[in-house]
Amino acid sequence: MTEITFYQCFQTNILNGTKTITIRDASEKDFAIGSIVDVFTYEQHQWFAKIKILAITPISYHQLNDTHASQENMTLPELKQVIRDIYPNTDQLYVIHYQLVNEEERCRQ
Ligand SMILES: CC(=O)Nc1ccn([C@@H]2O[C@H](CO)[C@@H](O)[C@H]2O)c(=O)n1
Q1: pTM summary value
Q2: Which of 2, 20, 21, 80 has minimal Cβ neighbours within 10 Å of its Cβ?
């Protein structure tokens, strides 16, 4: 998998580095660790960044804690609500840690 989409409302937090994880279901758990992935908005499919996949860790919904919330730049209740809205019937989730790839790093490829 070489691309990922995010809801447009998260674009600012991804670009300013305050959101450093995303939590997805099994359909999006198969990124290669260390790979660089193009990031698009979900709504318009507009490219806005490249990220490097650092780690992918299984987690169940009830294990979500304040650390995950702060890595999402949300409160825990906000995060749990967002995840329930996106994945209403899924308990098995995956935390994807990523790092924004800047221009310099991109040119070193
Ligand atoms: C657009 C699409 O296909 N799917 C998703 C799925 C999740 N997310 C965000 O990841 C975090 C945890 O789920 C929260 O910040 C979510 O809003 C997203 O932006 N887009």
Answers
A1: 0.92
A2: 2
